[in-house]
Amino acid sequence: MQKLFSLGMAVICTFQVARADENIFKKVKTQSKCIINKSSKCMGGGSMDGGGTGGMRVEEGAAWFYANKPSGVISVCYKIASSFKASEASVKTAIEQSYKTWEAYISQSNIYQRTDDNDQPIPYPEDLKIATKIAFEPCSDSTELTFYFGAREPRINNILKSMAPAIKGFAFREYKDIDAIKGTSKGVVWIFDPTQTQSTDDDYYDWSKPDLLQAIVNHEVGHTMGVHHQDGTIMQENLDSLFYLSQATIDQNTPEETRQIISQYRTFLNKVDHDSSLVFNFDDIDVEGTMGLPGSVEEREAFRFFMQRDPVGKVATRIRMNEKKKKIEYIIKDERGDKTFTAKPENLVPDIANFTFGTVNNQFKRVRKIYDSQWRGYRFETDVSASVTLSMLGTLKFDQFSKLDIKFDFGPSAIGYFKAGNNTSTVTSLSNISLLYFDQNREPRIMFVENIYDFGDVQDELGSQSFPGAK
Fold it and tell me: Is residue 32 predicted with pLDDT exceeding 60?
């Protein structure tokens, strides 16, 4: 199991985003906006490609349906192949539950929260809020979204011809039916029937198991919400490891660490976020992780430093950051108990040397075609985004002991910004957080890193016989 960490001592630059007493959240937001607006004040700059989408229509990848659509709900139906190993009741339940899951996630993630350069709230356009309400009806030409569970029709066969042979499911939007003004369109979701294939490797896609069926439906419905593939979430492109590992056989000989990883994968099935986030709420961060690789020397040394004793069993850490309270809670836990360390950040400075840039697929991309009376024509309002890896250097002042020099690493981060005409505002979405402290020899030590799981290592350890369909 391997994961690379940037552990070298970072170069401390003289550039500081704002006043030294500002908290970390304000600094990262400010620097993000500075980068996106290509301000000359962004020292260490570089550029971002704001280019197009390779000739794709502007609607590509956007949410299919909007909450202000005339009916307020999405008309939905389903068709099930006779050989598909799921009952009609379980199929209907999976669809209903998926929309409830995404509705809750959108609400909790505050994806409509926007602020201006002074951190003042900006109302989000009602036209761009995503529809999450559905109504079942008999399938007809007017149905907006049709689910196919193993069923085949000419339009499904035509779509499959253009896709890879091993495709397990897809969500396909029919552009001829898009009405960007009304916020409506039509499309299909198709999920394959493993009983119709010749490969025993498909046996672990057992749709008679409600949690597996729910996971694949959640993934495809996510695409209709305008969400692209993202590792570490239910939207990861290759779901094989999620389905495979969640069904691995556990017995009395299974090592405890492997047992815990398999258990966690099973809990992943019906959650949107796993070990990364589609949307990170900047105002209230709460992330679970580890102190490096489980059982490593680095983990033991860091644990001793904070807890003044050796760890017992599995070690876990958690970071809670609250902007309004301007504090950070750092929690360490093992089988003997847990302890919370409360701290405030001081003198945090962006490490310009560790800024990197690139474009990423937009998560929850929203697009609407708006009539602009000034130009007497239509224009598009869209969400666009870029990837930024950001480091912050500074000090944490703890309640329990004095101070630690630290380095926060955020990234790769997805910085999305809503663009309408000449007005731009930003929302920063963070993932893959790590926190290092520097010991008395100025050596970096891992305080926190998001959970590290490696499906390949577990598969090697358990052997192929532990997985469904293995020969």
Answer: no
